Amino acid sequence: MHFAIVDIETTGGHPSINRITEISIIIHNGEKVVEKFSSLINPLKPIPIYITALTGINDEMVVNAPKFHEIAPKIISLLEGKIFVAHNVNFDYSFLKHQLNEIDYVLNLKKLCTVRLSRKLIPQLPSYSLGKLCNSLNIEIHNRHRAEGDATATTILFEHLLKLDVDNHITQMIKKGSKEQQLPPHIEKEQFLNLPTLPGVYYFKDNKGKVIYVGKAVNIQKRVLTHFSGHNPSKQRQDFIKKVHYIESTSCGTELMALITEATEIKRLWPENNKALKKYEATYGLYEYVDQKGYLRLGIDKKNKNIQPFISFNNLLNALNFLNNWVETHDLCPRLSGIYKFSYNCEQNRPNCNCLKSHDEYNQLVEKAIDHLNLEKPQFMLIDKGRSAVEKSCILVENGKFYGMGYLQEDQISNIQELKDVLTPYPSNSYILSLILNHAEKYPYKVKPIY
Question: pTM for the whole thing?
Answer without folding.
Answer: 0.61
